[in-house]
């Protein structure tokens, strides 16, 4: 369970990107829906401990993530909206390298981790190809493979379907749905269908505030 209490973020120029956000996010897939500029990326970066909020508190299980961000990072998988890659490096080598950084020490264990992730994300056949040649869908699936290294308990995916064609989008969302019910997965998106199709729980963020929270079918009936 991820719990945010009274989280506010005011940027240096005075923009109030998050305004008193209180939210409980259970295990399973959770949709954070909102228009561009709503504050979704700010919220995702804050939960991923990349920026500290101006005020408020955030807990993940027994971890106070503002006081002990390192404890959260060990359990976190994060797929940012625009993630950088080394374009000439192969998918296999990049995942292997990231597994080293994540502390997967033994070569045998790394081989197993990387092979499992390449199969899970359907990238086995292109494992030796440079990431520069990947389509948008392949790139996003590679991003998920990266985020899954080390069996994270909290997975944050920020606007993952932007720019994907319908087939790639379905493939990507089905992959997310397969990750499991025993982890917290937060899917941030401005596309209603991404959330309605897959997420048992959701919240709507607009102008930095939570406008609605609940099950998609209830919210869609209510609106
Ligand atoms: P979303 O991800 O929903 O599009 P963001 O979190 O990116 O929303 O942005 C929320 C608001 O904060 C917007 O008004 C945006 O312009 C502003 N914002 C985002 N990043 C910064 C920044 N580094 N400095 C100032 N304002 C920012
Ligand atoms: P998706 O629609 O899921 O992004 P693509 O249609 O781009 O996937 O690719 C489907 C298959 O075609 C891949 O699994 C791969 O086998 C092959 N392929 C496509 N592009 C490349 C590439 N740049 N390098 C190697 N194989 C590729």
Write up this protein.
By secondary structure, this protein is of the alpha/beta class. It contains 8 helices and 10 strands. A 6-stranded mixed beta sheet has the order 6-7-8-3-9-10, sandwiched between helices. A 4-stranded antiparallel beta sheet has the order 2-1-4-5. The radius of gyration is 17 Å and the shape is globular. The mean pLDDT is 93. The chain binds adenosine-5'-diphosphate (ADP) (2 copies). The site of one adenosine-5'-diphosphate (ADP) has 12 residues, from helix 1. Keywords: ATP-binding, Nucleotide-binding, Transport. Residues 2-223 form the ABC transporter domain.
What is the gist of this entry?
The chain is an alpha/beta fold and 223 residues long. The chain is built from eight helices and ten strands. The structure holds adenosine-5'-diphosphate (ADP) (2 copies).
Structural features:
223 residues; alpha/beta; 6-stranded mixed sheet; 4-stranded antiparallel sheet; 8 helices; globular; binds adenosine-5'-diphosphate
The ordered H/E elements are: EEEHEEHEHHHEHEHEEH
Show unreliable segments.
none
Ligand species: adenosine-5'-diphosphate
Q: What is the CA-atom radius of gyration, in angstroms?
A: 17 Å
Identify the overall geometry.
Answer: globular
Keywords: ATP-binding, Nucleotide-binding, Transport
Domain ABC transporter: 2-223
GO molecular function: ATP binding; ATP hydrolysis activity
Organism: Sphingomonas glacialis
What's the layout of helices and strands?
Elements: E1 2-10, E2 16-25, E3 28-33, H1 40-47, E4 55-60, E5 63-64, H2 69-73, E6 76-79, H3 91-101, H4 107-120, H5 136-148, E7 154-158, H6 166-178, E8 184-189, H7 192-198, E9 201-206, E10 209-214, H8 216-222
Parallel strand pairs: 3-8, 3-9, 6-7, 7-8
Antiparallel strand pairs: 1-2, 1-4, 4-5, 9-10
Helix pairs in contact: 3-4, 4-5, 5-6
Residues 11, 13, 15, 17, 34, 36-42 line the site of one adenosine-5'-diphosphate.
């Amino acid at each position: 369970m991820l719990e945010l209490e009274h989280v506010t973020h005011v940027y240096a120029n005075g923009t109030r990107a998050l305004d008193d956000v209180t939210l409980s996010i259970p295990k399973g897939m959770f949709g954070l829906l909102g228009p561009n500029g709503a504050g979704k990326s700010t919220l995702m970066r804050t939960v991923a401990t990349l920026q500290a909020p101006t005020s408020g508190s955030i807990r993940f299980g027994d971890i106070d993530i503002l006081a002990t961000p390192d404890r959260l990072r060990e359990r976190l998988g994060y797929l940012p909206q625009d993630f950088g890659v080394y374009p000439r490096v192969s998918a296999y080598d990049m995942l292997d390298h990231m597994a080293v950084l994540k502390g997967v020490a033994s070569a045998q264990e790394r081989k197993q981790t990387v092979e499992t992730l390449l199969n899970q994300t359907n990238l086995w056949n292109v494992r030796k190809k440079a990431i520069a040649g990947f389509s948008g869908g392949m790139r996003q699936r590679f991003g998920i493979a990266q985020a899954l290294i080390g069996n994270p308990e909290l997975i944050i995916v920020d606007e993952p379907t932007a720019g994907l064609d319908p087939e790639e989008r379905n493939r990507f969302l089905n992959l997310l749905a397969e990750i499991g019910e025993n982890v917290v997965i937060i899917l941030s998106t401005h596309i209603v269908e991404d959330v309605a199709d897959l997420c048992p729980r959701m919240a709507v963020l607009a102008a930095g505030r939570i406008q609605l929270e609940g099950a998609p079918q209830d919210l869609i009936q209510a609106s």
